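[User]
Protein folding is very new to me. Any chance you could explain this protein sequence and its structure tokens? I have pasted everything here:
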Amino acid sequence: MNASLENLRGVSRLSTDAVIGVVDLVEALHRRLSPAQVLLGQAGEERTHGIAALVYKSIRGISRLSGGALDAALGAASGLLALIPDAATTRSPLQEAARAVLNGVLGDHLADSANPLAITMRLHVHAGNIPSSSRPSDDKLAVFVHGLSLNDLHWQAQDCDYGAALARDLGYTPLYLHYNSGLHISVNGREFADQLESLVQVRRTPLKELVLIGHSMGGLVIRSACEYGAQAHHSWRRQAGKAFFLGTPHHGAPLERSGAWIDALLGGNPLIAPFARLGKIRSAGITDLRHGNLVDADWQGRDRFARADTRVATPLPDGIVCHAVAATTGARAGSLADRLLGDGLVPLASALGRHADAQRALRFPSSRQWIGYRMNHIDLLGRVEVYERIRRWLEHS
């Protein structure tokens, strides 16, 4: 199927959804600013009545009709072009980056509405990034899992390509997970566990080593996959020996918690409460980062925008040697930047699994913790110092 037309089709659907969303917001404001609301302080409905209601209903109907017609036309064109071989086999980093950001912010909506822009999980092999002089082993796999609003190509966008370096130095074959980071972490974790099991089952010989390396949200997806893999008695769980968590918000990220406070402040004022829905556009994946949700029980049957930490206490996966890599923009331990912001997105305590509640604390041994100074969150994707630490741990732990 022609990728450009499918992207256009996805954008057209999203545009229709956006128009309807704006109409809903304007109608809610109209209702909130009615005399009964402003003068009498009466709690009102989100919908208007009479002629105004008819106008808003008409706009929604026209938007859906025109959006549906355009979608049908683009769908037909895509179907015809799908019969024509596509010579282009390369992926555009710019387009992939834009799509990844969109999925990070609205990924659950894209998936629920069957929008063509929604990313489908798959494992990629980046053969072009492995040096020709390297001979990676087929029975030693290193699987890389990206973070929120990123994609598998971001592992090659920094100064040091960890996958290529591990192939060159230690003979690992690198694989890269690409997934919709706007979905719940537990949804991605379960599917990742299933994909790893499928990968292991189709092999003719057992794996010698399976190493998991996650950046940011990717580390939570790994922990979630380990949990679901253990519950399903997957064979890959017995073959996964080591895991590396790079800037993973094991206990959440302050920026998402700030978003929750903004929701509460907006929602508490009846005149501006309709704007609170703008904050609630953000995806399930983002709200999972507030405290670091891992399993379905952390969010099912709960208001995902609530501020309370209701997570199930999930320890580090049994049978896997786990390592935590954190970063701070500060120049030394104990600095203000170190304590408050860490790498700019994830505080050191969260990245190292520390928690005031002993049941929630993740006990990474001190020999399996490392802090990079004067580094930010994205630096952890491709710094030589980080790679050297991972390599030494693989060689000696």
Observations:
- Residues 50-81 form the longest helix (32 residues).
- The longest strand covers residues 321-328.
